[in-house]
Design a protein that fits this description.
two-stranded antiparallel ribbon
Length: 260
């Protein structure tokens, strides 16, 4: 299983490429580079947690389906360190973020052995969709937490600045997890969506389709670099859900450079 994400610095407004909304950029920093650094520091832990949760869900679902590989190798853990790949999780996102404005990277894939599933097809679909489902649940959970943090900040004004930072991270949490779910559903191997889409194809086509996995990362990078219209269409439900969530929590947003 592979959890990939894209993170945009464009305009220093939001955190995932192709996503725009009414939330403003961080305005207390004097220069674009400072804004990008501040935004990256704010978003990075949320993105890391979301990717770890995604991979943990794959491993846990595989265990429930009969495959103990991830558990045996110590990957069924919330500790982020085993899920970090030096190049994919750290170097590549930093390089692409500060050179192109788009951070492209991912967590270390959780190893699974599908032949160990009690039911191969059912297990493959469940394990593949477990990460996406987890990201969607996290996005939903962030919404009431934003409201609780906002109310807490108003009841304890001395903590309002700290609460505003936490609230900003939760706001990003909604968008990041919706975007992670949508991005990983793109039916390009080795993304999760491909493990479901292949069962809709005739067997011969499915075999050739899975072979695209060898060039999958290159295809995804080209799509991100040159396929803006396609990605905008694919991410349209993310835009709509994020705007809906923003309307719900807006009355509870603490006034702060982090959130306004």
């Amino acid at each position: 299983m592979l959890a990939l994400s894209i993170l945009s610095a464009a305009g220093a407004n939001r955190c995932v490429e192709m996503v725009t909304s009414t939330r403003s950029s961080i305005t207390f920093s004097p220069g674009p580079l400072d804004k990008s650094v501040a935004q990256f520091i704010l978003v990075a832990p949320v993105l890391l947690f979301s990717m770890v949760a995604h991979e943990y869900a794959h491993g846990y679902a595989a265990l429930r389906q009969g495959d103990t590989t991830a558990y045996s190798l110590g990957r069924l853990t919330w500790n982020p360190i085993p899920h970090i790949d030096l190049f994919m999780t750290i170097l590549l996102p930093l390089i692409t973020y500060f050179t192109t404005g788009i951070a492209f990277g991912g967590a270390k894939p959780v190893p699974v052995v599908p032949r160990n599933y009690r039911n191969y097809k059912r297990g493959d679909i469940i394990v593949s969709l477990a990460g996406v489902a987890t990201n969607f649940v996290i996005a939903l959970c962030c919404i009431p937490l934003i409201i609780v943090v906002g109310l807490s900040g108003r009841l304890a004004p001395l903590l309002s600045d700290t609460m505003a930072i936490l609230q900003a991270m939760l706001l990003y949490g909604v968008l990041i997890n919706l975007a992670l779910a949508a991005f990983n559903l793109i039916p390009i191997p080795p993304l999760d969506g491909s493990h479901v889409f292949k069962y809709l194809l005739p067997p011969a086509w499915a075999l050739n389709y899975q072979r695209l996995g060898a060039q999958g990362l290159l295809i995804l990078f080209l799509l991100i670099s040159f396929g803006a219209p396609v990605l905008n269409l694919w991410f349209r439900p993310v835009f709509l859900l994020d705007r809906l969530a923003t309307r719900v929590v807006f009355p509870y947003i603490l006034p702060s450079p982090w959130t306004m």
